[in-house]
Amino acid sequence: TSSPTTPTSVSVIGLGAMGSALASTFVDAGFDTTVWNRTAGRADGLVARGARGAGDLAEAFTASDVVVLCVVNHEAARAVLAAAPPSDGRVVVNLTNGTPQEAESFAAAARDRGHAVLDGGIMAVPELIGGPHAFVLYSGPREAYDAAREVLTVLGRPVYVSDDDGAASLYDLSLLAGMYGMLGGFFHAAALVRSAGHGVESFTDELLVPWLSAMLGTLPESARSIDRGDYAETGSPLAMQVANDSIGEASAAQGVSAELYAPLHALMQRRVDDGHGAEDMAGVVELLHSRGA
Ligand code: FVH
């Protein structure tokens, strides 16, 4: 049930693949939804679905309690912000992907113009918005999050990270870094299997997915080691893992590039050379900081 302060209206600015998915989800959830896009015409399908097409950016910005911005990058987001009217505490939720520094800079500029601002990181592709697997990270003032939460919930599970403006972006990019690492490993494995003339699909279904699923279960213990800065307890010491570079040698022999794996192997070797060969591989994280964590 809605309280009198619950927002009932939302504007979506930027109707690319993601902005359109956000807007149609708001419409389907019954919110009074106003939409605007720089290039006219992209709102037509949403208007046919029940959204209100704003005549200009100012109309879109002032039409709703909550304004969701989802454009290609922060340069575009800053351009939209500069062209929009100031407000007296309207919640602007910037779901444009960028760095923590860009999120902080956008938030400061938005506050200068009187807006309450949240930064968000969408952990979903457009087709998943509004579904059970979508989640969205938010950071910024807690009051702004609480004010907009009921609207934002329909997009996917909302996760409030912290009041630090850059935190949602940092978590978003950290999750993507984890994903790209996994995909890099998959591509190397696929190239090795294919180099021997075997099918990648059955290898993946029957062996790689179960293997990676089992290895995922080891991450919480590694995370605890990283939080403690103590990598001593392990049944698979680093020195054993780099005693030979079978993956690199086999890749070369198969005509497969090891360029995705080689940087990690080099870090593992450096950690051993630094005297940590008896420790767990998670200690490699200590080599990734160029300044104090
Ligand atoms: N699509 C995805 O899978 C990912 C999932 C995770 C989050 N990302 C981020 O979402 C932002 C928008 O992505 P998108 O997929 O909607 O991108 P496009 O389909 O390329 O649409 C871009 C929209 O940005 C508008 N735009 C560009 N420049 C400006 C500007 N200077 N002023 C105002 N609007 C601008 C563009 O308008 P137009 O070209 O149609 O006039 C589109 O509406 C993005 O940060 C992803 O990283 C999506």
From TrEMBL:
Residues 10-160 form the 6-phosphogluconate dehydrogenase NADP-binding domain. This is NAD(P)-dependent oxidoreductase. Residues 164-289 form the NADPH-dependent reductive aminase-like C-terminal domain. It comes from the Bacteria. Signal peptide: none annotated. It comes from Mumia zhuanghuii.
